Each structure stands twice: as C-alpha cells, then as structure tokens.
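> forwarded from #structure-qc
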C-alpha cells in the first residue's frame, strides 16, 4: 500500500548493531562520528537564549521567499565575505535538505536525472528518490589532492540530466571546487541547458587560504546556478532550522527560477516566523560559535596529523569542513576495521563505503569531536594491531 519511494533496506548494519549493544552494556564509546555541534561541547553565547524575545514573533505574515528582514540578514552575511548578493535573489527554506527538494521540483520531472559527486555525503539518493528522479554519480579523483573528473562528468550527462550537484567543500573529503573546474562546469552547463547546484554549508571552514579555490557560486553569471547554505553549519545552529537558496545566472533565468521557487515555497510555507525575526541576531551570535568550531576542527586536525605521521595510516589532503579521511592498510576491510575498533577499543568511526568511496580502505572521522575523546580515539586507532 506504500509508495515505491521507500525501497531501501531498513535493517541495521553490523556496525550499528554492535554500537547499540555496546551502549546497552554501558560502555564508554569514543564517538569520532559526531556532527552535531550542540552535543560536541561547543560553547554557545548566552544571548542566543533571548533571540526570540521580539514582538514580531506574534505576527504571521507569510511571504513565500521569506521576510525581507531575514533575507537582508543573509545578504549581509554574503557581503561580509565579499560577495554582492541582493535580498531579491535569496529564498529561505527550513534546511538545505528542503532546499534540495525545492530545486529538484523546480528543475526536474519524474524520471529525470541529477549528477552528484562520488564520494560524498550519502543523502542524495534519498532526496532524489523522494522527488521521483534519478541520481547518477561523477567521480572525484585523488592524487595528492582531490579533483573533479571533468571528462567522466561530461560523459555522465544524458538527455535527461537537469543539474550537476557540487558539494563545496565536499563532505567528507573537504575538497573545494577550483576556479579552473568551475569555468569548465559553467561552459558545460550553459551549452547543455542544465543547472549547477552548489551545497556550500561548510564553505566558511577552510583550513588555509587558496586563491585557486571557489567558495561560492552565488555570483555566477554564465549559467543557471543555485547556492545553498544555512544556520546549521554557518552558525553551528542546526536546531534553528533556517537555510537558504541564492539564485544566480543570466537575468532571464534568474527571474523565472525565483518566480517558480516562490510558487513552490508558497505551497509549504515551512520557515517559522520566530526564526525569521531572529535571523540577523542568530547570524551575529552564531559567528562566535563558528569561530569556536573552527578552532576545534583546526586543533583536532593538527593533532591527527602529528599522531598519524610516520605510521601506516595516512590522512588524505583536506582543505576544509568537519571531517578527515584516513587511508588504512588493506589488511582488513573497512567494515572489519570499524568493527574491530569498536569491539576492541570502544572507538566509533565510519567506513568509507558509507560515502561511496570506490575502493578500500578508508575511514572517516569527525573533527568536531571533543578534543580529549578525539585524541584518545585516534591514539587507540594507531595502536590497533
């Protein structure tokens, strides 16, 4: 009686079963998969407790794109980063995931396709299937650093391709789109009449500057492009449920896209009034949270590099984000590495196949984890026979 969208195997895997058993036994598990800043010991400004104390929260004035005040706050966020983004090009959503659903509705009919990177965060297949569209993958290649395989990407485009998704920086590889890559992508998109969708939630978390890197597609003018971000990562506030889409590209395409996105948003009106009223203050106070997260991830990365140096374990080049990818000896499978580490050392990491790495053996660890647990967990990983 249920729709064909729900075709996934919902049974728990071996790692999940073992984790549940460990926690059921009261074991202290060092969780190196933590991605929730509100549970990672990050200090939050006390002022955040009072951001909803405003008269406007009691007035409901539904605007499909979101209130002008909130969109101006987002525009200011971009101006502080040297990008000219007018409020009229911004549409608010409850999350980046909702942003994807809006864009897939906007760009694709049932049976159409979007291209997504591999490896990357394992969410696209679920989001696409919910909109009755298909996912095709294009590879990221690693050679002392990550790069888009542009030839493979071009070869993956079909008559039903409607968009190319870029995760910038990618999760978990931490690799940014490079300017030379973007030039090719824009030309390809314009020639073939497809859009670029750029997920930029981790864009503020670069570990070092790089003039050859692209931090946002919000100013793209040569093809239809959509940049997405939100408070979840920008301000370390996933509980506030506010994201946004910035529409870029030629004026005629922008106008049509904004009009249709507002139509979609008007159907759901999902963004709450209180969070819109508080958007400017949430971004203001969230800047301190972002700084603390940046300090945490940088310190953990430095420790990881020092600890793994000279061992058989290698941290792949990472430019930004909240994760590291560790190449481990192929003396056992990724799943066996994770099972052994959890079983014998009470340390939880993720196997590379969770993110569709094409080969073995890689582990993914979060740099957001509390320093003491992160350090102890990596030390135990190095000591695993």
């Amino acid at each position: 009686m249920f729709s064909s969208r729900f075709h996934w195997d919902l049974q728990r895997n071996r790692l999940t079963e073992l984790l549940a058993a460990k926690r059921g036994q009261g074991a202290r598990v060092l969780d190196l998969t933590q991605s929730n800043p509100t549970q990672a010991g990050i200090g939050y400004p006390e002022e955040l407790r009072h951001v909803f104390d405003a008269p406007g929260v009691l007035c409901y004035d539904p605007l499909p794109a979101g209130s002008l005040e909130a969109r101006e706050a987002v525009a200011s966020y971009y101006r502080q980063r040297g990008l000219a983004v007018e409020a009229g090009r911004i549409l608010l959503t409850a999350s980046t995931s909702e942003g994807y659903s809006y864009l897939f509705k906007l760009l694709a009919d049932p049976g159409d396709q979007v291209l997504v990177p591999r490896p990357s965060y394992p969410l696209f297949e679920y989001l696409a299937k919910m909109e009755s569209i298909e996912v095709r993958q294009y590879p990221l290649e690693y050679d002392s650093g990550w790069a888009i395989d542009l030839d493979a990407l071009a070869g993956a485009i079909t008559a039903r391709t409607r968009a190319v998704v870029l995760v910038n920086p990618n999760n978990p590889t931490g690799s940014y789109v490079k300017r030379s890559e973007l030039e090719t992508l824009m030309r390809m998109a314009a020639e073939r009449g497809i859009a670029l969708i750029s997920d930029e939630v981790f864009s503020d978390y670069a570990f070092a500057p790089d003039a050859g890197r692209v931090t946002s597609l919000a100013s793209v003018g040569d093809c239809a492009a959509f940049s997405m971000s939100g408070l979840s990562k920008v301000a370390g506030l996933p509980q506030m449920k506010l994201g946004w889409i910035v529409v870029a590209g030629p004026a005629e395409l922008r106008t049509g896209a904004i009009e249709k996105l507002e139509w979609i948003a008007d159907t759901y009106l999902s963004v709450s009034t209180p969070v819109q009223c508080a958007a400017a203050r949430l971004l203001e106070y969230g800047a301190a949270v972002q700084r603390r997260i940046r300090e945490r991830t940088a310190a953990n990365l430095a420790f990881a590099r020092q600890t793994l140096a000279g061992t058989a374990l290698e941290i792949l080049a990472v430019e930004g984000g909240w994760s590291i990818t560790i190449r481990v000896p192929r003396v056992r499978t990724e799943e066996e590495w994770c099972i052994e580490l959890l079983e014998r050392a009470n340390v939880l990491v993720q196997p590379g196949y969770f993110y569709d790495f094409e080969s073995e053996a890689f582990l993914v660890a979060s740099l957001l984890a509390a320093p003491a647990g992160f350090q102890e967990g990596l030390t135990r990983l190095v000591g695993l026979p």
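QC bot note: The chain has two domains: 14-43+287-383, 52-284. The longest strand covers residues 134-142.
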